[in-house]
Specification:
This protein has helices at about 15-35, 55-65, 105-110, 115-135; strands at about 1-10, 40-45, 45-55, 70-80. By secondary structure, it is α+β, with helices and mostly antiparallel strands. The radius of gyration is 14 Å and the shape is globular.
Length: about 140
């Protein structure tokens, strides 16, 4: 199995962004369940961070779709690793509403990769874990 963390910049209009994301989450929950993909999404209002977990071919296929989705741009995979246990096994897509407090670390990851960004990747990864724990 594979775990993949990516960040991206939203192209959604600010006045409609959160309602559009709610619809995205609803649709993704259905599709991800069908594909056997689990994960979590954070939306800051202007950026996305998402973890996808599942069979490598399924995650890669979903990422190809995500990369051509016009609702965001500058899609950057910041962490990709093999896993044996899912962190988000209980959710097709864990989401708890807007998370503007994490905007800065996501913006840092959208810059050209530098050594200091490893801490930001770990911070977002830990926040994803906290999201899963709080939703349980």
């Amino acid at each position: 199995m594979l775990s993949l963390l990516y960040v991206s910049v939203s192209t959604l209009s600010k006045d409609m962004a959160f309602s559009v994301v709610e619809r995205i989450v609803t649709q993704a929950n259905i599709k991800n369940a069908r594909l056997g993909i689990t994960g979590a999404l954070i939306f800051t209002g202007t950026e996305f961070a998402q973890v996808l977990e599942g069979k490598e071919d399924q995650v890669n296929a979903l990422m190809r779709e995500i990369c051509v989705d016009s609702r965001h741009r500058r899609i950057t995979v910041v962490k990709r690793r093999p896993i044996t246990v899912r962190r988000f096994a209980a959710w097709s897509l864990a989401y708890s509403g807007g998370a503007t407090y994490i905007r800065r670390p996501i913006q840092q990851l959208l810059q050209p990769l530098a050594n200091e960004q490893v801490g930001e990747i770990d911070r977002i990864d830990a926040l994803m874990d906290e999201l899963a724990t709080n939703l349980a």
